Amino acid sequence: MCQQSTRLCKTNITALCIFLFTLLLTVCGVKAQKQTFFSLQGKKINVKNFDSKVRSLIDETGIPGVSIAIIDHGKIAFSGTYGFKTAKVNADSRTVFEACSLSKTFLVYVAHKLADAGKLDFDRPLFEYLAEQRLVHDERNKSITARMVLCHSSGIENWQSMNNPDTLEILSTPGKRFIYSGEGYNYLAEVISLILNKDYKTYIDEIVLNPLQLKNTFITFSEDGKSPNDYAVGHNALGLPIDKMKNTEPDPASGINTTATDYAKLIVAIFSGSNLSEKRVSDIKNPVIRLNENDPNSYYGPGFAIVYSGKDTIIYQGGDNEGYKACVLYSTVSKTGLVLMTNSDRGLTMVQKLNELSVNINIKSFIEKADPNKQYPSEVSTLLRTYRQGGLEKMAQKLEVLKSSKKMQEHTLDELSYSFLQTNPELSVKLLQENILLNPQDATAYYLMGIISLEMKDYYSAKEYFTKSRELNFPDLDYNNSIELFLKKCELAINDIETRNTYITNISANDKTNIQAEGYNKMEGITIGVSNDIDSTRDVRNLDEGDWLSYKVNVTQPGLYKISLRVRNGQQPADIELQSETKSLTKINIPGNAGNVRQWQTLTAEAELLPGTQMLKLNVQHGGIRINWFEFSKSNPN
Predict the structure, then answer these.
(1) Does the reported pTM lie above 0.85?
(2) Are 597 and 561 in contact (CB under 8 A)?
(3) What DSSP assignment string belongs to 132-147?
(4) CA-based, 20 to 30 A from 576: which of 134, 180, 284, 510?
């Protein structure tokens, strides 16, 4: 009897286990099924219908791939990934996009956490924590605070390379004017590293990524570039792929790769009240500096743009890297928000329509000013779709029909021109010149002509176009700031050109003649930096195939000269040709450096120099090198 009972007991237990296992599988299966509805502001949104509208939107706008997250009442209500990460390869929920300037939010969160802990005083000069050596030339650096950096009123230029590459500049009195600054955020990141005695990547991991479980966020790529391996490739306005930037060093201002879902978790953490004190959250919403003197509703606070719209206070942050666009909209009243990440230069053209399909935050006028491209639907979206499907001729036909209707939207030719700027500059110029004839008061057209002239290094024309654009006065956010910076860049370039035109070196048979590489008269494709050679001077770098340097010299005595060239290159060999005017004098082969790629070497060659004043040209035929100096000395006769 007992044995039978035992067998029955075992049978019942087995049956119960099977039942529970089956139930578990069923429950797991339900959880694994795709979400069919999501709740948004008390309404149920059908996911299938929403997905269909988003896919139609990205098809119409030509945006290859997007990552979306929707916040409702302080929680992530929905997230989705659509389209392609590259070459018809589908993006998925783990595909990371460049966060662009949304990367700054990770530092914003850390800064406010440290303020809560009493470790960072937002109103204490950063100089008292750590001096930024690139700014010590300007006494005003001693008044810059964390608050100024966070709200972009420090006066520090956005990037040192944009204006005078030799100097990081303070463009306005700290605290007085909105000037967007990535350099400022990178400075603050270094200050926090000093406070915590940890590098940026470590403290972001410990304070942000691990506690918030942001498992699809990457501060850098691995040294071999293989991790993360699921990333979206950027695309230009025409839908053509752009080489992926894989930063192996942190860039706090713009270098993070993540998903919309992970970033939405960060936004929720900031505004939920669970991670930051009420004082900190209130401070984030506190306006500090007006974005535009003519707009009383748009400000920047310590971390985000702040937009007042009716009774709502809206948080906004946009992101713009080459081939990628991103943004976040968040209503602090309804606690609803939208995060959008895209792999397209035209990614933000869909944000207002997506906003209308979801959270419907009243921020339309601000978005229209924040992005130079018109929001969908627009004539340019239609024209570019025609181009992608039928080519340039079909697009031109459609454009002619549009112009003949005399109902063309304002700035259509400007925006279309900008779309072709990198791939077809001749077409860009033609479209802008036509637009200036049709709309002689269009400040945007002159602005873009200035941009094209800068790209072509025609600084005189660029100065004229930017000056005209300034006279017509941009109404948009910080275009006028940009014009001032570009005009300054033109002035510096013009002064540099006119100074360099006076350079001339006498080459004598009696003495060695040394020419520093940065003392060129003209150049193509190079930059100048501080050398790590033994003389600690400056060198000319980024000399790749097709780049060149030219120097005006006066050869007082013709004949055979030895030429010494101080160079540094990587593991690949390089070839340089020395020309006098168009005549080839000699070629110098630079062997690949299999050892220390930072090592400088002196190479020699011989060349017959002709008498008189002439232009000597160093032309890179192959490879990539740096040059510190070169030297001429009369060869000894045999």
Answers:
(1) no
(2) no
(3) -GGGTTSGGGGG-BHH
(4) 510
